[in-house]
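Worked example 4.2. Below are the chains of a multi-component assembly; read each line carefully before continuing.
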Amino acid sequence: MTEPLPDPNFQVEELLALLKATFPGRIRPEDEADLRARLQANAERAAELRRYPLDFTDEPDFVFRARPDGG
Amino acid sequence: MGAEFAFQPVRELARRIRSGETRPTELAEYFLDRLGRLGSAYNALVTLTRERALREAAEAEAELGAGRDRGLLHGIPYGAKDLLAAAGYPTTWGAAPFREQRFDYDAAVIRRLREAGAVLVGKLATVELAGGMGYTQPDAAFTGAGKNPWNPEFWSGGSSNGPGSAVAAGLVPFALGTETWGSIITPSAFCGVSGLRPSFGRVSRFGAMPLSWSLDKVGPMGLTADDCGIVLEAIAGPDPADPTTVDRPFRWEPPDPGRRFRVGVLKGAAENAQPEVAQNFEASLRVLAEFCALEEVELPDLPFNGLAGTILFAEAGSVFEDFITSGRVAELTAPEDRYRPYVYLVVPAKDYLRALRLRKKAVRLLNGLFDPYDAVVSPSRLTVAGRVDQDFRTYFPPRTAGVPISAAENVAGLPGISVPNGFGQNGLPTGIQFTGAAFAEERILGVAHAYQLRTDWHRRHPPVG
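Applying the procedure described above to all two chains together yields the following structure tokens:
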């Protein structure tokens, strides 16, 4: 691989098109600019998070119990 | 109904009950009348729970008469944000599509208040679905825009607008609100009341509308920090129905009036604030300096807004996936709430998981930073409330939307309390927030209580009814 793959998070137009195709008629033309800005904001948030390093020991916190009684 | 019970803190109402100056049924009738008569003026009331209130008040009266005293809340009326289930009444979540929704059980917090002898008089307004769909204006609920008792042409804040307005106008002695990201602190500041966001895990969320499973908190809003402490003691504690709750005892006793505290002042907290907000914060620091050692503290470099947004949108997208994909979202009141949630459906799992992994660092760093202090202070909000007909994007430009600590404290599940500290533009209240390390509610309440012993902002009330 000689070039990095494009980051899907930045494919705002593709995501907008996906939403419009998945939910036809739900997104009015006059709302598209705001929705596009929201998608862009999502992408920028994701990019911001990627600027902070994590390693293999950084596991997420999940509230999970293997038994209903918490055991 | 000649007696005046509005604007009396819990301890005073409790004293009057025990001295025989009043009875729980008289208090219930008084606040049912006041809430029913004035609640609509602020779009604060969804449902008056008259039958239940009169039954609970009669039970409280009989018990107290028989010598069984459940504590300070026994016989005290209150209201609950309409995100909290109460058996026998609609629980609308502030949203038109859920107007007829009913649950046959009480939320854990309402059950605990019932066990403490408190009397539910009303379900109070909320921004639809706790504001989680991306609203940009106050008129975002079927109940209409929340109106501020200090001036009904201005907003009461969100999303716990009903509790904020109702407490500020003396329509209930205290109320329960919820916060995912600012929803207790903001209306408390805008309405000039005291509102406590507990640590995540301190109070059961069972029976509360989920918006974000790892960010939602339920907490009290009242006239004073003392009131908030009394209510928190009643509602706190582990609950098998909410596996995120923890077994850490909480007891509220006001600290010795002569006690000194160590308080951090958040660096840059008042930057971008309205001038009056900054001035009031500086004045508050001068009061705090009389009984606190003040030191500047700085938040660690972490992307708190990005963390809060990613976690909230991913979890809300899952909570409301069926509601969004079914198209019922189009039935919501605010036009932007009808399409904005679609973006929640395309938050990548890897981004959500990255946010959760980074949150562990945030939790460790923030608790380490806050542990040495009894509280860290900042303005509760950088502005006073805007007009009820004003779009947030013109009044709250993104860079001044909130104090820097707002996202950090919610991501890490830290407790905070907002208490009034003056007035700003248009004669509207401003607030100061005391934030603490996780499960340090007693410490932040102690500082806030000591502050209120030296100020009278919490004793000023709007001219209502």
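Take a moment to check your reading of the output against the notes. The helical segments of chain A are 12-22, 32-50. The mean pLDDT of chain A is 83.
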